[in-house]
Amino acid sequence: MSERELSERKRLILKAIVEAHVLYGEPVGSKSLLSNQQLTCSSATIRNEMAELENMGYLEQPHTSAGRVPTEMGYRFYVDSLVKQYRMTALEIEQINRTLQRKIGEFDRVLEDASRLLSHFTNYAGIAFKPSADQATISRFESAYLDEHSLVLVMVFADGTVKTGTVYTELTLSQQELSAFIDVLNRHLCGLTSSEITLPRIVNLERQVGLLSALVHPVVTCIYDAMSELDEANLKVDGVNHLLEYPEYSDVGQFKEMLDLLENKEDLLGLIATDGEEKDLQVHIGSHNSPGPMSNSSFVCRLVRRNGKVIGAVGVIGPRRLDYSRVIAILNQLSLGIAGAIGTDEGESGQAADEN
Amino acid sequence: MSERELSERKRLILKAIVEAHVLYGEPVGSKSLLSNQQLTCSSATIRNEMAELENMGYLEQPHTSAGRVPTEMGYRFYVDSLVKQYRMTALEIEQINRTLQRKIGEFDRVLEDASRLLSHFTNYAGIAFKPSADQATISRFESAYLDEHSLVLVMVFADGTVKTGTVYTELTLSQQELSAFIDVLNRHLCGLTSSEITLPRIVNLERQVGLLSALVHPVVTCIYDAMSELDEANLKVDGVNHLLEYPEYSDVGQFKEMLDLLENKEDLLGLIATDGEEKDLQVHIGSHNSPGPMSNSSFVCRLVRRNGKVIGAVGVIGPRRLDYSRVIAILNQLSLGIAGAIGTDEGESGQAADEN
DNA sequence: AATTAGCACTTGAAGTGTAAGAGTGCTAAA
DNA sequence: TTTAGCACTCTTACACTTCAAGTGCTAATT
């Protein structure tokens, strides 16, 4: 009994237990495994093996007269070495890509779609996440003249994002005045982060634009709003109602804890950020020693990269007995899809603004 | 006695029962009402009155040895004639208005804020709703030139809404070409609903713009997206997790039914639309004879008008023992706030003058 | 040495019976 | 008309029993 390597039969048994538990959600007994075609031994033998697996820490018993349930370590082993890649059907892949490609370029929208897709495909709660940028800078301003009291301010950000806002003013504004005003903006506010737009700079701006100084305040507000929106970490959750189908959440208290966690974006954010350094795929398996809402739940999270840089993350939250195989496959596909959908506007047309 | 009019004492008792039940969520017994200062009689008298109120249909007993609970009719009577206006504090009103006014003009954002505000203030689930317009038309196009491969299309809708979209193209585009293109758009697509933008019109458009015909397809797509977004009925729900604090939803099945209802925008929409003809404030009180998810829940809904026209609705969903008084007050205030926040850019632009 | 059959043992789930408590309706007295 | 008092009903909680599932261990078998 080497402690380091599991015998082939033990692996088989562990795998069978995990899969049966994922399917039915109840402790797995030695006899019920006999139906498994690959296991040719008797229930007594399985009992012996199960006892050893329990000693090694892969299994545990809720109580003496119950079957076995995988521990966190058991799931970990399963995910790391026993899980066989789930293969998505062409139809599923097609469906994902089609949905994503309808909203090219609008990352916030894509996130919303992504979380919905995830919850729909996995039947767990789907999560999509955009990290806080914290240093959005505008590389260029443009405008469109609406009427003498209103205009659309177009802001092109350094990363290529374009945002717009509508500005109303009491002034009577001509087209020429507007373009002059935009010129001033371009000269004075490009390349600045929101915290660099200080009061002296604003006052200076007001001096520069002369008669139009009343326009500065609403415009700066608009700029600030756009920047905050871009900077703000954003988290979309969809399909929590699916979780209620699992008996794990039949206790309302448990479920409420989960909901509150999802409401509190910061907490979940921490969960992603803490060890989100390099691993593209993170599997958090709930365990008893880490109490709180996640003790009975698992969270699988996949980073989304563009040009090697992390631009977001997608994930799934569900009961600890998650169908890891399927979930991981779907997350991979989706993260590819997102990167693809966003990449389209970048590979072909000249990418705006690397200048700072 | 008289079946038509309730005696003063009966009204008092009914009121006390409703309020005690709203507070504690449990059937109210005759003795527990003795603590009420306004009732000077004994528990036996109260019992007699309660028996009569039950005969009249205002109260019911879950079972023989339990206290009384208001029926739908009981609540209806309470709401119609016993509820005293809850007075919001100046602080609460202030907070609502401040939140709303930050996002002037962006109705979809306002909705999101509104639902959040509602759930926060009432501790029930908050709902904000925008009906489908189905006939959005664009009154003018504007544009901003980004670079030779991309532009921002600004669409001014007939109702004053402004939407923008970014368009990418393979073509190499000059500023002059762009403004010529926009001119053509303005000549051919203004005032049309999305279903009126037919293939012949699009082909004709392509012929008009000559070399830029490749630009037509992405631009039309962009227009269509914007129109659909405006047309689309939209429903924001926030704070369902609050509901879990009420024992009414301690049965997971009940709660899931509720969640599924909220997920299914159409159903809820029907609930608003069916009798949404003229009453600004609609109070749906769950009752046993109308089964389904709403049998144990109530839904209070307030239409939001601008210039007399319904532009949306806000509402609250919670257990049948809703604090109707408070909820109605908050809904009224919020609907005023929304109308105000949106109204600013229309008609009464003279008000915001003294801000700086 | 590994496997298996068999059996005693443990334990939670489900069912039953009883006692307590809350609330009522009714009757008779004030 | 109101109230005190009492018998009645029904839920809840708890203790107790029974049942089935699943185990661990021992002895027999391969």
Explain the overall architecture.
The structure is a homodimer of 356-residue chains. By secondary structure, chain A is an alpha+beta fold. In chain A, 46% of the residues lie in helices and 19% in strands. Chain A has three domains: 3-82, Winged helix-like DNA-binding domain superfamily/Winged helix DNA-binding domain (Arc Repressor Mutant, subunit A, Orthogonal Bundle); 90-131 and 234-355, GAF domain (Beta-Lactamase, 2-Layer Sandwich); 138-231, Enolase-like, N-terminal domain (Enolase-like, domain 1, 2-Layer Sandwich). Chain A has helices spanning 8-24, 43-56, 72-82, 90-101, 107-122, 175-189, 199-209, 213-231, 240-243, 252-263, 265-274, 324-347, and strands at 59-60, 69-70, 125-130, 138-147, 150-157, 162-168, 234-238, 281-285, 297-306, 309-319. A five-stranded antiparallel beta sheet of chain A has the order 7-3-10-9-8, with helices on both faces. In chain A, strands 4-5-6 form a three-stranded antiparallel beta sheet. The first copy, chain A, starts with 7 loop residues before the first helix and ends in a 9-residue tail after the last helix. The relative contact order of chain A is 0.14. Chain A binds a DNA duplex (30 and 30 nucleotides) through helix 2.
